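Mods, move this if it's the wrong board.
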Amino acid sequence: MIELYDSQRAMRNMRKAAIQRGVVAVLDVGTSKIACLVLRFDGTEKLNDTEGVGGLAGQAGFRVIGAATTRSRGVQFGEISAMQETERAIRTALKAAQKMAQIRVDHVIACFSGATPRSYGLAGQVDLENTTVTELDVSRVLSACDVPDYGEGREVLHAQPVNFALDHRSGLADPRGQIGHSLATDMHMVTVDAVAVQNLAHCVKRCDLELAGLASSAYVSGISALVEDEQELGAACIDFGGGSTGVSIFMKKHMIYADSIRIGGDHVTSDISMGLQVPQSVAERIKAFYGGVVATGMDDREMIEIGGETGDWEHDRRNVSRAEVIGIMRPRVEEILEEVKATLDSAGFNCLPSQQIVLTGGASQVPGLDGLASRILGQQVRLGRPLRVHGLPQAATGPGFASAVGMCLFAANPQDEWWDFEIPTDRYPARSLRRAVKWFKENW
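Not the wrong board. Structure tokens:
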């Protein structure tokens, strides 16, 4: 636990140093593409004390000066499966982004979608030594949180205080400087598979880069695709990627749940490939140009010409109707949405006052997906694009870049994490076998 705490602190300090030097890269290591953005920080700091814990003072203003994507290789289900191929793909994307930015980058912040994330809600309470809450009191209450035994081979990726209560007053964003006797907190913790994280860190190191931060794609997609009101009142972000689908729930501007489903857009492509007996590349093109999930009478008459592999064009040429393609795609898309529904139900999403659902990610662009999702999930559903950030090329403004843009916002304005506070060595949280509290069901 102490090692982990120290490594996260080291990454956070490295990120601060890189931002002060003025340039940092963000890397979205996905199953279907690897995206790299180079950010320049102009040194203007917007002091942001009003946001308190959850919005660190000293947000930095930034601009995207380089952007590149390349086809991902060696990544399956959001996790690295072939180290050398992934390294080559990262180098390709980084080189192109550096060329566009005309600057060399040494520090990178990465996000990934796999590694089986698990969410825990923790609670802690301490009595105040003085009547005024200090930074040390916040550290003490965070270290008093009852950390569950999350098992061997797992690492804590995020550990964020999401709510503070001072005596009988709950819902405080930042208790520092306020007067009371007893301070309590709710903390949201996400653990991931340690090996998947270590592989990614090792791969980044092999690319001659320093890793200055890690984040879950589900989290950063939510930051960029949900508007401020949705983050405040409660919403779920469903990030449809190539190899996996990320689910995150936000409330009071904090992520309170994260999960990942190991099915994505690539599985739909594989279904088309097998169903029509065509190569993956042809199946991907058919999905992009003719795909959909709702068939109409017109689709029986709309014919798609497909060629084969043998090179004998006359022999290979054949037609399929668009209705046939939709008939292949729909069952798999329904399966993904059913999995999403089961995940949201197990998280207690229906207990939240607002139940908006936002779909984003590259695979969310299938025509008719929002209507089908609304029917299966039974909630208000909209398609989400990432927020606009300075200097972002037009090509990188689509839903497929939600996590890359979210990484920019995560780098420029990080939310407080447990390791940002000076926790006395003798107060490191003890591992406890008690189950984590499903706090957001009771608290919101």
